[in-house]
From TrEMBL:
The keyword Membrane applies. This is PLANT/F17O14-7 PROTEIN. It holds the Pfam family DUF1191. Residues 1-22 form the signal peptide. It comes from Salix koriyanagi.
Length: 241
């Protein structure tokens, strides 16, 4: 009878592979590296000041990237605004550098391919910014920087949320590497706050109904298969007697 037990493993196997655990080929960290490379190429041609749009290859169409290079002193005194980010004065890069580049990205319709939050749905595109040492005008080998926020926090505005529910269920999400997620309350005016660089979006918790019905379906499939296997075992047992 020993080998027949393998029939019972099959429905268990089906139960374990639910769609929630699907792996994708979209790696957000290698995307950041690639975007940084394109941004540095654009910036190599210009000196400082204005925000520059970064053209990406056609197969990334739908993403929006820009880059701005600033003197740290100027950044400390005035802050900088770009797209949905408002960086106030009294923010300083560390380690300290003379000039820094800030790379902004909006993943648009690619957001949910690169980032997902278990049990939540994103209702805004993923936007992100990162800072790099730009002291040296030779573009390569730029070191990534962090921020020290000594005054007000950095604001991220999400003007066009794709929500169907009441605003109380909205959560700001900070999307770290390796699927790490930090939740924060959203303020009035659909604004999130942060003390540093990274990737951000807004999420709503999936309704329990959806989740339960999915679990339920897998139980039905699991039990169905188990009963089918048992019947088959019975048939095989009967016919081989
Ligand atoms: C787009 O093409 C580049 C090479 O030109 C490749 O490295 C990258 O992975 C492609 N991106 C996607 C999303 O297919
Ligand atoms: C995003 O939209 C652009 C057109 O605006 C399209 O070319 C691209 O294939 C879309 N990307 C995804 C992942 O759906
Ligand atoms: C950024 O925007 C805020 C609010 O609109 C404004 O008060 C501030 O002066 C702006 N900062 C810069 C550097 O443009
Ligand atoms: C800039 O980079 C070049 C070559 O990478 C190096 O020789 C030079 O010392 C660097 N300058 C500064 C100010 O770091
Ligand atoms: C976030 O919002 C919830 C409900 O609106 C509230 O109970 C909680 O105290 C808030 N958390 C913070 C850190 O403000």
């Amino acid at each position: 009878m020993g080998c027949n037990r393998s029939w019972l493993i099959f429905p268990l196997f089906v139960l374990l592979i639910s769609p929630v655990h699907g792996l994708t080929g979209y790696d957000s960290e290698s995307l950041d590296v690639l975007i940084h490379q394109y941004a540095m190429k654009v910036q190599a041609k210009k000196r400082t000041g204005t925000s520059l749009k970064v053209p990406l290859p056609a197969n990334f169409s739908g993403m929006e990237v820009s880059v701005v290079r600033l003197r740290s002193g100027h950044f400390w005194e005035r802050g900088v605004n770009f797209s949905s980010f408002y960086i106030p004065p009294r923010v300083t890069p560390f380690p300290f550098v003379k000039r820094l580049s800030i790379v902004y990205q909006n993943l648009g319709n690619w957001s949910t391919l690169y980032y997902r939050v278990p049990d939540y749905s994103l209702v805004a595109p993923v936007v992100g910014f990162m800072a790099y040492d730009a002291s040296n005008s030779s573009a390569s080998g730029n070191q990534a920087l962090k921020f020290n926020v000594l005054g007000d926090p950095i604001l991220i505005k999400f003007p066009n949320l794709a929500t169907k529910g009441n605003p109380e269920i909205l959560k700001c999400v900070e999307l770290g590497p390796d699927g790490l997620v930090h939740f924060r309350n959203i303020t009035n005016e659909n604004t999130c706050i942060t003390q540093g660089d990274g990737h951000f979006s807004v999420a709503v918790k999936n309704s329990g109904v959806d989740k339960n019905s999915r679990v339920w379906i897998w139980w039905v499939i699991g039990f169905g298969s188990a009963i089918f296997a048992l019947v088959l075992l019975g048939v095989i047992g009967f016919t081989t007697l």
